[in-house]
Amino acid sequence: xxxxxxxxxxxxxxxxxxxxxxxxxxxxxxxxxxxxxxxxxxxxxxxxxxxxxxxxxxxxxxxxxxxxxxxxxxxxxxxxxxxxxxxxxxxxxxxx
Length: 96
Hints:
This is Transposase. The protein is mostly helical.
């Protein structure tokens, strides 16, 4: 493949991933929760880029292993986020 063809292909993939990430703004999935949390904290453009990157990593992992994606759901994502923040707060209290 020529270099220009690969660049065109990567541009198309990046555009598709960004479009998919942007469509998650109203999704009730874990990825939708991830997008909304980042959008509130960092702004929409950075949230779209970060979510597209996360989608690319998920796609690559599924493509190479042949597994099927199962969405843990928004509730599971929120619970994991709460546990992670509590753990980091406890760690900060121990350091202080």
